[in-house]
Design goal:
Helices cover 28% and strands 25% of the residues. By secondary structure, the chain is of the alpha/beta class. The protein is globular and about 60 Å long. Keywords: Acyltransferase, Transferase.
């Protein structure tokens, strides 16, 4: 017994932010010194490494739960279900609702509870809760939903991934150019055939890696000294991902019973184009295979890194035939994988 996805939806925020947006920013380093390179060169290097040319920001009147609601409603409509039949609403995020112009996170009540309220669901036994698991949060929510369904606790679950990272960035840190806003969602229910989740794996590396992504002070020391922003150790994360994500993907694929040559797509968290390509190449090297052409769809160049939203949003785009050279057909075997704050790694193999 397993579960399958019967509906998907996403929300791509309307405001397009090009790299030119950052041209007047005062980027400084950890020591509080202005970077010597021009912002144009900094942006050029960012594009070369991450692939990011543009990213999307939410409208000023929107918060994360608003984005999640839109994606959730789209998934419900796509599945053609009555939301009253949902047994669980699982909302993956990391920073809650942060209103424009503020830095304070609002997570009470949970974002899942807010979405359930806005969907006007009357069923009190539809359980709504949040998952904080870094960028792999949506995958972890899917794994939890699958466990509930396999255990007979639930028949149908809604899993949302949404974030407004633009609200928690330090404008003096060049890494702020990476982050974006967005939302994606999916409906899962019990599978009545051999389709659905075939295997999954999760891991948390906390002994030495816990603080590779963290909340820290602005690099501009006299700017809001008590306010914290999202920070990362980019080189350490890159090395960690290359060392651990391919191995997790290999374990997941081996557990599924499928062969490497049977994979049709790998949908990986859109964190950094060069890093993602290196991860997938190393994954194939573990099987002495070259990385196939068009195996890994990428949209980070236009959408940036929206954390938990990247994978469900990308899946929706593929299933809606919005990406050239990429499609998923019945019977296709797809690997989903992610890495992020924690440091957490997870993956699942899915048969469509």
């Amino acid at each position: 017994m397993t579960s399958k996805i019967i509906g998907v939806g996403n929300y791509i925020p309307p405001e397009t932010i090009t790299n030119l947006f950052f041209d007047k920013h005062n980027f400084i380093n950890k020591s509080g010194e202005s970077l010597k390179e021009s912002n144009a060169i900094i942006a050029s290097k960012l594009k070369e490494i991450t692939g990011i040319e543009e990213r999307r920001y939410a409208s000023n009147d929107q918060v994360t739960s608003d984005l999640g609601l839109i994606a959730a409603q789209a998934a419900i409509d796509d599945a053609g279900i009555d939301p009253e039949t949902l047994d669980y609403i699982i909302f993956a995020h990391n920073f809650g609702d942060v209103r424009f112009g503020t830095i304070q996170s609002d997570t009470v009540p949970s974002l899942a509870s807010r979405v359930k309220h806005l969907l006007k669901i009357k069923n009190n036994f539809c359980v709504a809760y949040d998952v904080l698991f870094g960028c792999p949060g949506w995958i972890e929510g899917v794994i939890q939903a699958n466990a509930f369904i396999k255990a007979g606790i639930a028949k149908r679950c809604l899993v949302i991934g949404a974030e407004t990272l633009s609200r928690v960035v330090d404008i003096h840190d060049r890494d702020s150019m990476i982050y974006a806003d967005g939302a994606g969602a999916s409906i899962l229910e019990i599978s009545d055939d051999d389709s659905g989740i075939q295997s999954h794996v999760s891991a948390s590396f906390t002994l030495n890696e816990k603080d590779y992504l963290y909340f820290g002070k602005s690099y501009k020391n006299d700017c809001c000294p008590d306010t914290k922003y999202i920070k990362m150790e980019g080189r350490k994360i890159y090395e960690f991902a290359l060392s651990n994500v391919p191995d997790a993907m290999k374990k997941c694929l081996n557990d599924s019973g499928y062969e490497i040559d049977q994979l049709n797509k790998i949908i990986i968290h859109q964190a950094n184009e060069k890093m993602d390509e290196a991860i997938v190449k190393r994954f194939y090297q573990l099987y002495d295979r070259p990385m196939p052409e068009h195996i890994m769809p990428m949209v980070i160049c236009k959408l940036g890194n929206s954390s938990v939203a990247t994978i469900p949003s990308l899946l929706t785009m593929i299933l809606n035939d919005e990406l050239a050279l990429h499609e998923i057909n019945k019977g296709d075997i797809v690997m989903f994988a992610s890495v992020g704050a924690g440091m957490n790694v997870n993956a699942f193999v899915y048969k469509f």
